[in-house]
Fold these 2 entries.
Entry 1:
Amino acid sequence: MSQSNITSPNTQGGGVKRAAEPEAATNEEKRFHTDTTATTPDETTEVVRRKRRKYALLLSYCGKGYLGMQRNPGYRTIEDDLLTAMLHADLMTEEGCTCPQMFHFQRAARTDKGVSAARQVVSVKLPEDVPIPDMVVKINQHLCSQIRVMAIRRATKGFNCKSWCDSRTYSYMCPTFAFAPEVEKATEDYRITPEVLDGLRNILKLYEGTHNFHNFTARKKAQDASANRYIMDIDCGQPFERNGLEWLLVKIKGQSFMLHQIRKMVGLAMAISRGLVGPEVIARAWRESRLDVPIAPGLGLVLEEPHYNKYNKRYGSDGIHEPLTWEDEKQKIEEFREENIDSCIIETEIRDKSMLQWLSTLPLHHFSTSEVTLPKNTSGLSSKTKGSDDEAEDEDEDDLDQYRISPQKSKETPVTSGIGKLKEITNGHIGTDVEKNFNILSNMDQTKGEASSVSEAKCLNS
């Protein structure tokens, strides 16, 4: 008698129950299919699916040249490059690369276009027959220098990096002249004073707590429950000099953030610090009326880290799973950030002067409940520099062109139709009778189409 048929008495209910199946039986994942290229039954192949486990991947990347984290067909995204690298590393199937949900692929945060990440977490099922250090090396071999897998941790079966995330920390790095009082000219020679720095910290503290942030995002009504967000901590560090400019890093920690929320929070703080509006405008922003809130440039926004306090407390010390704290990778992450993220932000700001240009449009905002009306081409600025509400909601088509994936002529596949397509599907295995009948039908369709064209022409002439 097989083990699966053995029954044991149920001491509680007085009945019998089936014994638990061995774990090996539940983990055995096999499937069979016939190879489409096989010409005889003997060439039928057996395909064994590799056993997979849930893992948490730690990523660091520079978002320059990418249309955000989430995959967007036809555009360069971090997610698309990562999945392609896993495919080439033989850790992902073609079906999984096309439909990542097959392997429970999920991201902790969806960064917007041009936004970088010092620590981004992805959860996905990967083959368990490959050692973790080898997986890191193999994936990085197929990634560009802007993206790096820093670590991989084994996670629980039900781990989802988005739903298990307790909070997220972002940072915004910008020149200190963005906070200069209006009486002082905002130039690259400006150095922030202790009084202005203390005032800025007091302004930022007004954001802490649970508030209705419907005025700090796009297409969100005040009545939506999802507009209420909890800001745990927000502060700025000490200023530092780099490449002739003085910089400031603002860090924001919250449960979750909406589209453009952080950029609008920083933009409004800049307007208050410069004296264009009083700090009471923040309290007015919590109300139901729509408020004109400027959106700061995207350059400088970085995802610092998703936090997993509850997960670490529950599973981090169970002897099987490691806590998702990434302390061992701290030095490696800082080196990558210095070389790829911070340097890119600094060089781009010095070259494009996007913050100086944006500050010139800041006085055009009236911070009232009526709609903002900015000139379309104020001072010759591009739409992506102005930072108006229109830019927040609608992407400029010309702006998106830089993220498009250009088709490579060498890899183009000629479009085949008719009998050629039929031969392609059947790998050339069609009979002469089938080909003859197919050609007859094609000629009939062509004749019918020509007749239809003649009839249409007669109707137009009449």
Entry 2:
Amino acid sequence: MEWLGFIWNLETSVLEVPSDKIQKIVQLVVTMISNKHATARQIACIVEFGKSFSTSHWKTLNEYKDHENLGLSASLLPKIVRRARSESTNKKYDSYFLKFEKWCILNSFMSLPASVPAVSLFICGLIQQGVSYAVLESYFYSINWFHKISLNSNPCEDNLLKLVMEGGKRILGKPIMKKEPVTVDILNKLVDHFGKDENNLINLRTCVLCLLGFSGFLRYNELANIKMSDLFFEQGYVKISIRESKTDTYRRGNEIIIAKTGNKLCPVSWLNKYILKAGLSKDSSEYLFTAINYSSKSDTYKATNKNKGLSYTRAREIFLSSLKTLALDPKKYCLHSLRSGGASAAANNQVPDRLIKAHGRWVTDIAKDGYIKDDLPNKILVSLNLGL
């Protein structure tokens, strides 16, 4: 496994220096000897290479690879440290840091530990290219992360880098074009159109996907990971266990309650119809939302591959296509429109902020407020209560 610029053999627990890194240093030394002089950058490059061995705890831990009692612990440490971030975050950081490493090689810089001038010049180059600020942050945080876990000096903590990032934010910052929230009126139209034939499994899935996303303030990854064993039907409501959530870092789990409303848009009623039609087994490990295929023999749609959830791309296609069918502009909406729509409806109907925050699993009020769009009557309410 490639780890902190080195190769960590998980079978033998041996920490090795990549051959290209050794070759680079050798070539640098040969060049310095043949020229009979060296630049400050060349000297710094060799010094930093040496520091990466002398100061890192990973070298010390490598000495325990053959220890009778501690060998296994020493080999597991890299995996444990990486679990400090989610798998998706690690993959993103790996990808961005690899690009930074290639840039360093091209420009004769050490990538780990990197110098403040090297990272500053790299970030400046990205700003000149006009990348988005989100991309700029990803590069910065990947460099920061790799230096943090290497336990070497971290250039990203330097004041110059902080100022460069602040300047980049001002230069690259663009107005945020938020997507519109789904409204109850849109849901009414959607159910009227797609719910008129309750034997059509594809249309039933569309209705349930939208109604659950709206009423549960659900992120798509939360929707996609719901299994039948996560649903608990009670009198008057259904309880959904959310096993993994973006803000549930330590996987303690969350539960949301969705009430039976008894009206046309009742999410519990539509959920029961969908489960029955899809042939899903309660208390099973089957995913609630799965692929649906058409059977020409029976002239019906059937849920297939129940052990795999519906992908984000496919769910997005289903959702935006349904809006287009209703003569709505799909460019104004995204899957998060269901989450923001539910939160906005709750806020505009005077549901207490504390309950909205808990139901949507938001950690901060700032995050919650970013999803809520006040309706016109509530906006007018402000100036009506100024005593004018």
